[in-house]
Amino acid sequence: MPIDDRPTIAAPDDDPYLWLEEVEGERALDFVDRQSRLTLETFGGRPFETDRDALAAIYDRTDNIPYVTRQGALVYNLWKDAKNPRGLWRRTTLADFRNAEPGWETLLDIDRLATEEGKDWLLSWTQPLPGNSRVITALSRGGSDAVTLREFDLDAKAFVANGFTLREAKSGVEWVNADTLLLSSALGEGMATNSGYARTVRLWRRGEPVERAPVLFEVPADRMAAYCSVDDTGPTQRMWFIDRIDFFNLNLWLGTEAGPRTKLDLPTDIWMEAHGDWLVVKLRSAWTIAGKTHAPDSVLGISLSAFLAGERNFTVVFEPEPRRALQGFFWTAGKLILSVLDELRPVFEICTPSASGWARAQLRGLPEIGVVDVWRLDRHEAESNGDLLANVQDPVTPPSLLLIEGTASPAVLKRAPETFSADGLIVTRHEAISVDGERIPYVQTGPATETGDAPLYMSAYGGFGAAVKPYYNSALGKLWLERGGTTVQANIRGGGEFGTRWHDAGRYAGKRLAHDDFAAVAADLVKRGVTRANRIAAEGGSNGGILITNMLVRYPERFGALFCTIPLIDMRRYTKLLAGASWIAEYGDPDKSAEWEWLKTYSAYHAATPGQNYPPILIATTRRDDRVHPGHARKMAAKLQAMGYEAHFYEPAAGGHGYGKDNRERAGFIALGYTFLRNKIGWADNAT
Question: Which residue numbers delimit the Peptidase S9 prolyl oligopeptidase catalytic domain (predicted)?
Fold first, then answer.
């Protein structure tokens, strides 16, 4: 009897597993519960429990860094530990925060709220009103992107009776004043784009039913989203209205609470930040303006009022180089901070505009190796005095939180604890040569002496122009490195490590090339004598789920085991599932025959065929992931099992687009994956 290998590339729509897309369907949940139980029975023994408990204890440590943001005179933090698994929203003064044990004032106990209301609440985000005690809080059920909005009073430390409230939806808000919000929400008939995000911006006044809130701005349903921001950095309040065409393109309007007034004459594929009378744009493609052609990834600055008056003589604030690329920028106290990777080394530049030109300086006192992140201490740009926070770390050095006050040298505020023994470990950089000759960097952490048989963990992302950096990872450190293993993080194309060219090379049809990059790194590790192919374990999540399932079907001989998490896999139907349509600019549109021609080359759900030598795989997702549909993971596991492969599946009920709603759940998700990986590469006996 022939094995059922549907769906196939030849018949991509003949899908016998569509029923698994019913997130709460009875038949689907029976599959999920049975599969998850079998996975836990197989890999959830005492070693797993020991690892889970050890990792949860690390995440719950009272001396972990409490990251803060400042609003007014106080700094705010959301804290989770064993006693407060859902979290405490709390605050203190910056002076007190410098102490070893600050005297925190609790604003909201999320665990108590969840118990009192019988809801699986997490605090997703907050939106405070500058100079006021009012805050909009976003409560998420189980970690989902969709949230319930409630107004909170910081002085009373309580929700506002008859205040602003909005039932569950994918929403965002901006305060206009104490009695008025700009609401971007998918809630309501005709209010959602095809991607499931807001397609309107509404002016919502206190006491007014949201259904009556007038629409100030709307975009077609085939856009990704509509949203807005309130800008108080100028002499009068202004609003920026954004028509997010797709993930990398937008139209911008400048306006007021009466609505948009002026559409900015700019390319659509830009990043833009305005502050006071200054406008800065970062280009994705070349732009010829005022007789000058500016290269992709250039950053240009100009007076906003002059631009609106028709002037186009931009100042070049940043020029890219082949392996020197901007990662981001932000304003603080009239200064523009540029975050740059130069041959993957962190560099931060301070650019200060004036009528006489732009002054440039480098942010000093920060390391030029490892990972350095810098951001504004103040929540609201208009309230910022220029103070910055910096986070410094590398794979064997725990993070340190630094405060940079004005022009002062960085001062250490907090140090994270060492959560694993790094004795004998070294961090080295290497490059593999991909199929087209491109050099693919990767960071290796492990023992100084190579044995040729290292139990090796690999990861990468390779999408959306997001650069991956070698952070200190407590889970990998405790459960892999401390036991003698080696880890590798690859900077494959599709990321933003070297700018737009690096991203575009791994985008659309190039996504397949990004996967070749990862396979090239795996081969290089064997060639260098670090390990053997069957000792390589690889993990990838979300966009990385496409990567891992393509290693399964395209390069099975290079891996011993694979861990695929919260994954995107089915490239035929992804645009029809939850937020999938918003990613067409990264992958392409499967409903267009020309684009399906390349999408089918990395749709592993269709490419998987029987009779191959696929390595064991664990596919894990969460039921409350309302960004990447859990059906991707469910269907891939079901198809692989039907063809006789060793494919395991795990799906907890909560977690959103992540690994769990609290520290213990996250620890369990990770520990289960690492237990599986170690077992399948023949390293289980070392996991004591």
Answer: 480-681
